[in-house]
TrEMBL record:
PANTHER family reported for this sequence: CYCLIC DI-GMP PHOSPHODIESTERASE TM_0186-RELATED, LIPOPROTEIN
Name assigned to this protein: HD-GYP domain-containing protein
Keyword terms of this UniProt record: Membrane, Transmembrane, Transmembrane helix
Residue span of region Disordered: 417-455
Domain HD, chain residue ranges per copy: 245-367
């Protein structure tokens, strides 16, 4: 059983003790104790529904409490919901401990937000005439809330999950700031309406539209997760059919992503290019296994069958709408800049940009991966070969982007065959980027994008 380390339990105990101190004095004695109970009940019910249906969190209610109530009362709002909400816990971990930790974490974060808001005069600012000024204390409260959550999350990652300290906090604050800021704006709207002539009922009307939007985003995420699961299943099927591709598709996806980032593409296109790299060989599912695993030379007819795999792949993925330009990359990643590629012999700018990216990534990984029939080429040698073929086979812009990305991030060559046997040193077996054997002849390496001919 995976036991929570003792140092993590001590850390949680310290957070719980600090949270209990934050709840003093007892907030239910507050003149507006009914508001504390109302917000706490709303948060408890909303959080239970949100977590069971994976539609987000109810931070707007917590931050509304921070903007309306004194710090101890605002901190209490988080307590019942955090203790009662379902807690996802890895096998063997105590879900009760996880709920107690979550409760302490939220109590401390809300207390910090409410205290920050109060110190900057936020309580008076939301009452009406000074409303525009209310943005300043509200923004500071959101920052305090986010910062406390980040600090506590990083600490528990380092102690309970043994994540290295340099990684435990990296990037968490910036990733969480944007969504929590949106929650803070909704909470500020609720606080202002709460003090308006329309009262708390009008304030609560802010919540249904937010929950509907969370539900819509959750539906999109579930659909995307289903598509990604389909992609993983397709790639695994290809890997089982053709041992050469084992791990190759994922690495081509990674190299395609590196090129896209170096070219300054936005995050959505970078993700699309990653999918393009992962799926580029999916059409091999339509190629007879005996041809993919054939050890001897391919006949011209067999080569033509293998060269149909981009079209097979395109047919397989054409119905997955979110792939976008990745579908064109699957179809055209074996086209060459000089027009001698396949399946359609496109040249230059006729070849989609996504396909030009994947062509370079595919060739690079094929050269730097060890096969059963040859050793991997050094990264430097593979780069030289790509540069030699830039302008005829590969887009020079894509080659240059990969070279720059490799200079910044490096690359780990890999084995993609289960039966690696000793081979002659790479220097004694020169490899051309895409050999073009004469009709009726078989290149010594007849099935890779690089090193075994064209696939």
């Amino acid at each position: 059983m995976d036991v929570v380390p003792a140092r993590a339990r001590v850390y949680v105990a310290g957070a719980v003790l600090a949270a209990l101190l934050c709840l003093c004095p007892l907030p239910l004695a507050h003149p507006h104790g009914w508001a504390v109970l109302l917000l706490a009940g709303l948060y408890a019910g909303g959080e239970r529904i949100a977590r069971s249906r994976a539609v987000g969190t109810c931070y707007p209610i917590l931050l509304t409490g921070a903007f309306l109530l004194p710090p101890p009362a605002a901190a209490f709002v988080a307590l019942p919901g955090a203790l009662l909400a379902p807690a996802e816990s890895p096998a063997g971990r105590d879900s009760r401990l996880r709920r107690v930790w979550r409760a302490a974490q939220l109590v401390l974060a809300v207390r910090a937000a409410a205290r920050t808001h109060d110190l900057l005069g936020g309580q008076d600012a939301v009452l009406g005439p000074r409303f525009p000024y209310a943005l300043l204390p509200a923004g500071a409260a959101v920052l305090a809330f986010c910062l406390v959550l980040t600090l506590l999350d990083g600490g528990i990652l380092a102690l309970a999950e043994r994540v290295p300290a340099r990684r435990a906090w990296r990037g968490h604050f910036l990733r969480s700031l944007a969504p929590i800021t949106v929650h803070g704006l909704a909470a500020l709207m609720m606080a202002v309406l709460w003090h308006s002539p329309y009262g708390p009922v009008a304030a609560l009307l802010v919540l249904p539209p937010m929950w509907v939007s969370w539900w819509a985003f959750a539906q999109y995420d579930r659909e995307r997760a289903a598509h990604q699961a389909t992609i993983r299943a397709l790639v695994q099927a290809v890997d089982l059919k053709d041992g050469y591709t084992r791990g190759h598709s994922e690495r081509v996806g990674r190299a395609s992503m590196m090129i896209a980032r170096e070219l300054g593409m936005d995050a959505e296109r970078v993700e699309t290019l990653r999918f393009a790299g992962i799926l580029h060989d999916v059409g091999k599912l339509g190629v007879p296994t005996r041809l993919l695993r054939k050890e001897g030379p391919l006949t011209p007819e067999e080569r033509r069958v293998i060269e149909l795999h981009p079209e097979y792949g395109h047919e397989m993925v054409r119905g997955i709408r979110f792939l976008g330009e990745a579908r064109a990359a699957v179809l055209h990643h074996h086209e060459r800049l000089d027009g001698s590629g396949y399946p359609y012999g496109l040249a230059g700018g006729q070849i989609p940009e996504s396909a030009r990216v994947v062509a370079v990534a595919d060739a690079f990984d094929a050269m730097t991966s060890t096969r059963s029939y040859r050793r991997a080429r050094p990264v430097s040698a593979a780069v030289e070969e790509l540069q030699r073929c830039a302008g005829s086979q590969f887009d020079p812009r894509m080659v240059g982007a990969l070279v720059r990305a490799l200079g910044s991030h490096g690359w780990q060559p890999a084995v993609t065959s289960d039966a690696v046997t000793p081979a002659a040193p790479a220097s004694s077996a020169p490899v051309t980027a895409v050999p073009s054997p004469e009709a009726g002849q078989e290149d010594p390496a007849a099935r890779d994008s690089v090193g075994r001919g064209t696939r």
